[in-house]
Amino acid sequence: MNTADNYQEIRNAIRELCSDFPSEYFRRIDEQRAYPEEFVGALTRAGWLGALIPAEYGGAGLGLTEASVIMEEINRNGGNSGACHGQMYNMGTLLRHGSEEQKREFLPKIAAGELRLQSMGVTEPTAGTDTTKIKTTAVKKGGVYVVNGQKVWISRVQHSDFMILLARTTPVAEVKKKSEGLSIFLVDLREAIGKGIAVRRIPNMVNHETNELFIDNLEIPEANLIGEEGKGFKYILDGLNAERALIAAECIGDGYWFINKITKYAKERIVFDRPIGQNQGVQFPIAKSYVNIEAASLMRFKACALFDSHKPCGAEANMALLLAAGSSWEAANVCLQYHGGFGFASEYDVERKFRETRLYQVAPISTNLILSYVAEHVLGLPRSF
Fold first, then answer.
1. In sequence order, which residues have a C-beta less than 8 Å from that of residue 124 and are 6 or more positions away?
2. Does 243 qualify as catalytic in the annotation?
3. Would you tell me the crossing angle of helices 350-358 and 232-268 to the nearest 10 degrees?
């Protein structure tokens, strides 16, 4: 079993990089609703966003396990990996299912920081989590696919050069299984925005750049089809499992941040002539949160190990996200509660991290749907929907 102690060299390197971007930096970025361009640039130059790219293409050749440690440490040190985590999990789709020509064309440039692959276009307004019901279509005409449709909650579009796009190439009425007939494309956003894709930014509770896309007769070269036509749903699952494991790691990082923050404060804050951390009513919730974060971390490592071994990991990736999102939210509430009024003050950073970690009860998948998945696919209970 992998443990956190195996990756101290990575942890130390990320902590050193993050030391150049203190809480004041992320607080300012959050207040301005800006993108942490300097931070993402530093990660890219140091090679961390190319961690999953094999060495032959200019990357570090690391696994999802190591990538999860990178994401965890960013959040554990007060940052927000949501600004850049897409490049990690989107990479899996191209790595595992792209042609050799596609990999040689794009991966070295991504590893070098010349291109960003930060965005994935799957979710739609009327389909939500029911991915097989997406209405975006891609019709082959000559040497191009003509795409029409709409996407929503598509993150980092305005800070990415390319996007992984899922569209239906065969009508659902003409396939045996509704998961068939979906295809994945690599979209050059530099050319597509304003020429087939219109972008509307969606202001939201956290400083997370996300958008609604309106796609009107977008032409995508046939060469940008990833893998076989009609097999896209199977391919996208790889990316989604990686996404869930990595975001679980981010939640774990958040959880440790909250625990470290409140533990330090509880030792120093004196009320009624004693530190509040001396009271069991304060101690026990903090300790319980820590225990749950440790447990979630173990499930994260299990999911990543299976993914890296090319073994099925859907259940483990989903359970890791459920446990991690739950434990980070629990730790967030504990941290806010025992900071009292100071927890609501921006200068303490608790309220910012509180908002950021709340997202993961809903995205990338609702925790209720994770429970439905486990009930049906692990326990064999009847499908509920």
1. 134, 135, 136, 149, 150, 151, 152
2. yes
3. 150
**Alpha carbon separation from 113 to 3, 42, 129, 295 (Å, rounded):** 30, 10, 32, 35
Q: Which domains does the chain have, with CATH numbers?
A: 4-111 (1.10.540.10), 119-232 (2.40.110.10), 234-378 (1.20.140.10)
Instruction: Give pLDDT tens digits for 133-183.
Output: 999 999 999 999 999 999 999 999 999 999 999 999 999 999 999 999 999
Q: What is the pLDDT of residues 191-224, one digit of tens each?
A: 999 999 999 999 999 999 999 999 999 999 999 9
- Please state the rounded mean pLDDT for residues 34-40: 96
- pTM (whole model) above 0.85: yes
> CB within 8 A of 194, min separation 6: which ones?
none
* List of E strands, the chain: 119-121, 137-141, 144-155, 162-168, 182-188, 197-201, 210-221, 225-226, 270-271, 274-275
The answer to whether the Cα torsion of 370, 371, 374, 380 is positive or negative is negative
What is the structure's pLDDT at 21? 97
Catalytic residue among 243, 316, 330, 356: 243
Q: Are 54 and 380 in contact, with CB atoms under 8 Å apart?
A: no
> Can you give 20-79 as a three-state secondary structure string?
CCCHHHHHHHHHHCCCCHHHHHHHHHCCHHHCCCCHHHCCCCCCHHHHHHHHHHHHHCCC
**pLDDT tens digits along 325-356:** 999 999 999 999 999 999 999 999 999 999 99
Structure tokens at 108: 């070295």
Structure token pair of residue 73: 């440490």
CA 59 distance to own-chain centroid: 20
How far is Cα of residue 157 from the mean position of the Cα atoms in its chain?
A: 14
